[in-house]
Amino acid sequence: MSEQRALHAFDDGQALAKALSASIAGKLRVAIEARGEALIAVSGGSTPKRLFEALSGEVLDWSRVTVTLVDERWVPDTDERSNARLVESLLLQHKAADAEFMPLYVETATPEAGIGEVRSRVAALKQPFDVIVLGMGPDGHTASFFPGGDRLSEALDLSNTALVLPMRAPGAGEPRITFTLPVLLKAQALYLHIQGQDKRELLAQAEMPGSELPIASVLRAGRPLDIYWCP
Ligand SMILES: O=C1O[C@H](COP(=O)(O)O)[C@@H](O)[C@H](O)[C@H]1O
Hints:
The protein is an alpha/beta fold. It has a single domain, classed as Rossmann fold, CATH 3.40.50. Helix content is 34%, strand content 20%. The protein has helices at residues 13-35, 49-55, 83-91, 111-123, 152-156, 181-185, 197-206, 214-220, and strands spanning 5-9, 38-42, 65-69, 71-73, 100-102, 131-134, 164-167, 176-179, 189-195, 225-230. Strand 7 (164-167) and strand 8 form a beta hairpin. Helix 1 crosses helix 2 and helix 2 runs parallel beside helix 3. It is globular. It starts with a strand and ends with a strand. The relative contact order is 0.18. The ligand O=C1O[C@H](COP(=O)(O)O)[C@@H](O)[C@H](O)[C@H]1O binds at residues 43-47, 70-71, 83, 135-137, 144. The site of the ligand O=C1O[C@H](COP(=O)(O)O)[C@@H](O)[C@H](O)[C@H]1O has 12 residues, from loops. Hydrolysis of 6-phosphogluconolactone to 6-phosphogluconate.
């Protein structure tokens, strides 16, 4: 593991969630102190549930925090697959109920039809993000950078100025929308949150030179990355 990366390993998901939540809350407080506001993008999927519960109890001025997603499945938040639904039900609760949420989904049939509206929304955010929390799927995808994704090379292109892109891939289920890699890499604090021995082994594979796993593009970028892992 390079000096730019730190692996924080925990015995279980509860201990991990507590530590990661405290670290994120610290970064949000620093941003609020410095700029009067804070901007965070989180991942969806199954891994962040405990983290969201822990984060929702952190004491900070959530009314100054904007929360969005790193990526979204193109489904409304009434759908169980919606990442927004997860954030709304577990993170934007308790003390964090005052945070502002900016969804990446709009009610259009496809992400291509809605991308204009989403672009306007994200362009209004005061970037860079203070905090970005990535996840990683069992196929090595992060955000919606899926193996075989139709716009994967665009999304990973460090010279691409697009903030968000639609994405379709065989393993993605529904069509997606995702922030691009350059946006993620500019975050003040970048975390990767993974659980399970299989994912740790996958990450080790991604560290190998020439790996084509999408998460390898994040690792290769060489920017500071805090990896939070538990079995
Ligand atoms: O589909 C997605 O999956 C990944 C990983 O999810 P997990 O269930 O393996 O934790 C997630 O990071 C991403 O935001 C989400 O859209």
